[in-house]
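Structure in, sequence out. Go:
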């Protein structure tokens, strides 16, 4: 891969059980993601991907690759007593990464004005682990060195 931001044509793997992943417990969140059943873009409120988008037309997977390991090493030098959870905390890397990803997504949309974006495809029932395998990327949980922000671009029904 040449860049940290890429897009590829994919056939999204629809698996409505992917929506349940949002309820899996993780550190300090025993009930899973705190946005579950709160935000419209999150399950169970979010529309299913194949109900909102035409899966018979070309669909693009857009992603932003973030070097979490490098970020953690940088923070470790600055805060040597921090735990692994503090070093990995999304509050310290996601805002900048999301801003850069949104800029990339907006640039994509300028070139592809007929497309709309799903910024939370798993919440819409897309198995991103299987879908990313189509382009040769293996997702690891929890991420150790590399993590990805992922979106799908598709034509609305």
């Amino acid at each position: 891969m040449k860049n940290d931001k890429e897009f590829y044509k994919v056939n999204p793997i629809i698996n409505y059980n992917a929506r349940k992943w949002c309820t899996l417990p993780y550190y300090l969140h025993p009930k899973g993601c705190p946005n579950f059943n709160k935000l419209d873009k999150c399950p169970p409120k979010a529309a299913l991907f194949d109900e909102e988008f035409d899966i018979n037309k070309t669909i693009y997977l857009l992603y932003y690759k973030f070097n979490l390991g490098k970020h953690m090493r940088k923070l470790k030098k600055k805060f040597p007593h921090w735990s692994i959870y503090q070093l990995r905390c999304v509050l310290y890397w996601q805002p900048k990464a999301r801003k850069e990803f949104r800029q990339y997504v907006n640039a994509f949309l300028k070139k592809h004005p007929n497309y709309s974006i799903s910024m939370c495809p798993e919440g819409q029932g897309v198995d991103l682990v299987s879908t990313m395998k189509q382009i040769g990327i293996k997702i690891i949980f929890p991420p150790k060195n590399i993590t990805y922000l992922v979106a799908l671009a598709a034509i609305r029904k």
